[in-house]
Amino acid sequence: MLGGGARAAKPSFVSYISPEEIHIKEPIEKEVNPRLLPGELLLCEASTVYKYMQEDGSNRGTYGKLVCTNFKISFLDDDSASDDNEPQFKNKIVGENDITLQCVDQIYGVYDEKKKLLTGQLRKYPEKLIIYCKDLRVFNFCLRYTKEEEVKRIVSGIVHHSQTPKLLKRLFLFSYASAAPNNTDGRNQTVMFETLEDWRDELERTKGNVKYKAVTTNEGYRVSEKLPLYFVVPLCISEESILKYEGRGIPIWCWSCHNGAALLKMSAFPKEQDDSTSQMQKAFLDGIYKTISKPPYELLKLDDLSSSLPSLQDIQTAYTRFKQLFLIDNSTDFWATDVKWFSLLESTNWLEIIRRVLKKAIEVAECLEIQHTNVLLIEETATDLCCVISSLVQVMMDSYSRTKSGFQSLIQKEWVIGGHGFLDRCNHLHKSEKEEAPVFLLLLNCVWQLVQQYPPAFEFTETYLTVLSDSLYVPIFSTFFFNSQHQRDTNKSGESLKTQSGPFRFLTVWDWAVQFDPKAQAFLNNPLYAEKPKPDKSQRKTARFKHQRQLSLPLTQAKPSTKRGFFREETDHLIKNILGKRIGKFINSSDEPPNSLREFYDSWHSKPVDYHGLLLPRIDGPEIKVWAQRYLRWIPEAQLHGGGTIATAAKILDLMEEVQSLQVKMDEEHSQAVSGAVHSVPMRRNSARLSSLFPFALLQRQSVKPALPTSTWKDLEDEDDLVKRDDEFVDLSGDML
């Protein structure tokens, strides 16, 4: 029997697999069962599902079984049971054909070649299923040859378990925590900031303990459920002040600069208050400001981020439009948008938001470094843009935050313990899209700009950042699945499936061994990291690095980027038009930095970079780039054969492993050690199969770029016409999704 919605008289799917091939891949011959994690339950499944890709007008793919569990959606074919040709960068939790329920963005059904968004109860079942993921993967499934009852079960199950609102304790996080053995090695160097000692150690590390103190006022969450158990405030702030307005209006310490200036944050009072309440709150704030503006404290600068940066709604809107450029489900759509790539990219406003956020971080760094002024960041809850700016400033000014353990500790301090609402902002429970905003992704995008501009300054790679962004949607770690420390602590209690009572033991995402084996973890570490030498006071001045900067450009408008476009075979003529003239809008915008800030910016960029000192991102014009690895890694048409930064890093890793192997052999020969043991051979990577998609995918088949009509080339060659008018905007929300 044909699947739901299929019509024999009007076939909408053409199979390019011969009947012989179909017979060979019959599921009866080799039953493939899903690999389930502890606590994972199989909910529904469907056989004879065709997973395909659309290339050059044809479909190619494979038959298999589509299953849905309380953790993921998974496609199983014959290759799923084989360990042959496993990728070197294999995730042990989420396979290449696995989609966690939290990673599902939208689901579309195809009815007579028309796409329709699937939500809630379905009256009619589609003949094709398209799943768009938050990590930008796109899965196409044909259900034409699946039994009708199986189609109903699998489609209803996938839509229900991935798109409908759910209770917090229905997350797989709790099922896994109650069933999985807690056998982590405990050698994680990340500071979790869950104890008073962690905060005191951080104060001592930054020399902030002279003017600031860690307080226990919120033990038992008696001040506020939004604040962490322990935090740091100026010494002059009394416990009564903290208690008065549930922590609002209190400057909370983030970090201290080497010169004593500090970065602080504060949750603002609600704007809509009656006059008497407003007057009392204003008097309270004036008293606080006067107290922390007196010696020994530096001058204080207030920065209301709600008025100086885009709103969360603007950020969400920009990212929603931006991600549509990469949710490509067929090569035809890819090439159709390729011609208008730069204008479509500019119209999303996402890169402009990144530039504004980086510019704000530079402003704060200038106040701390040059003006020796304390900066107080103000926001309604101090848990969104405050987290972004405070984290960026520390990455730019504190080399410890550019190590892997330091960066992870920073995320713990400012985001996890700091109270960023990951549950709401990522919409993990599908309760309210109004609260959804990619704030943490915005930070990672900004940090990536620094990583790609100054690679030797970071101990981690862009692959680390990409994997970290993917981990937002893996519900076996508690790191990104709570709104606050209070919410996590109050939901820790529960009963284990092993009949023993006790609190849940949640995993932390910082234990990378849970997801990757040691060989895969090597891709997270930067082999070219300029490690900070051990402190030697007698030689501190002469030991300062004076590397010449690479990839730097003069801070003038004249030179466009010499790199080719993100997609293959972009014409030099088109790049000249877009980069040379369109990007001028960024450089000549009215949002230019003030003179003092521009002088600070220009002065720093005119000197050699100290990779362990202050880092300032380049933010002029085309310097702000698209995070290609994260956004283009699933698009075969966008790959660079044998190229890309990670492919280059892989070759460097090969060389380093070979050198280490030779060093071991030389040491053994030098010591004249007689041993019959066989030396381990370095993990060689076949460079012929590498591309810019590596390590997430090896070299893939590419579709051929179609010849452009003569009229299109005529339009592109008309330089004046291209510059005067904006390219026609293509609304991808309707066609692509």
UniProtKB/TrEMBL annotation:
GO terms for biological process: phosphatidylinositol dephosphorylation. The keyword Hydrolase does not apply. GO terms for cellular component: membrane; sarcomere; sarcoplasmic reticulum. Keywords: Cytoplasm, Sarcoplasmic reticulum. It is found in: Cytoplasm, Myofibril, Sarcomere; Sarcoplasmic reticulum. The keyword Coiled coil does not apply. Transmembrane segments: none annotated. It comes from the Eukaryota. Residues 193-631 form the Myotubularin phosphatase domain. Signal peptide: none annotated. PANTHER family: MYOTUBULARIN-RELATED, MYOTUBULARIN-RELATED PROTEIN 12. Belongs to the protein-tyrosine phosphatase family. Non-receptor class myotubularin subfamily. This is Myotubularin-related protein 12.
